[in-house]
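Treating backbone geometry as a discrete language has practical consequences that deserve illustration. No coordinates are needed to read the tokens, only the vocabulary itself. For completeness, the protein is quoted in full, as a sequence line and a line of structure tokens:
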Amino acid sequence: MEKISEYNANATAYLNSCIEQWSRHKFDSTVCCDHNTTNFVESFNACTKPFRDMPVFSLLEAIRSWCMQRVGARFDKAVDMEEGQLTAYALKELEERTAESRLCYATACGGGEFEVRDGHVNFPIRLATRSCACGKWQICGIPCKHALRVIYDQRMNPHDFISPWFKAAAYKLTYAEHIHPMADPSQWPDFGLPSIQPPTIKRPSGRPAKKRKRGANEPKKGKRNTNVKCGKCREFGHNSRTCKSGGTSATGPSTSKSGAAGASTSNGGPNTRKRSKAAA
């Protein structure tokens, strides 16, 4: 925050006024979400990219079809889920944190309280309140690696300590309704209403842009892979054609070619023999 204040004091004042949006310790624990991003919007924009240059009706129809397929797949998946089954996200997080919990050591303190040592730091844990000193369990609703160390030592099932939002019941309620199929507009009844024509606008020159305009402070999208290795200087990030160091290749294919050409010229190649016959 001090570094931000040195750059722009107004930015610090803004961040202090909306701590609940960016600081994890201020997140609502009942939501069970430890991150707040716009990934959903970015994914939606990426899916609608092929339809942006269509008319409004065609654009909305394409979005409806895409949403119908996505929700329909989740609807069928929710029907097949068993009672108490975890979602794919919760199962993945549980597996990763289980692997991390192997490096922690738990000590029972009595009364359902434990102390877990992670490296050189101790974290008090209370299973009754489902809380850990690191704060991750309370915010995300999935036991952290410290809590999992205690749960496994006590021979308990970690599924019993995961929030109900990550289980089959909540998943089924989320996708309980699906988008029903719709008939083609050619099959709609005619009500005799006037058709709305699009406004008369002048089409600008050039091809319509489909890519999103990036902000001034947003990094540009890289076009080249950083794993490309130069054949001259052996550095990553460019190839031998764009190399500016002026180094020579280790294998030296160009040197061998020039050497072969020089040898043929000096030893009298086929062109030399033809010129000597013509002179004779």
Summary: The chain has a mean pLDDT of 82. The first helix runs from residue 2 to 7. Residues 265 and 272 are 8 Å apart (CA to CA). The longest strand covers residues 104-110.
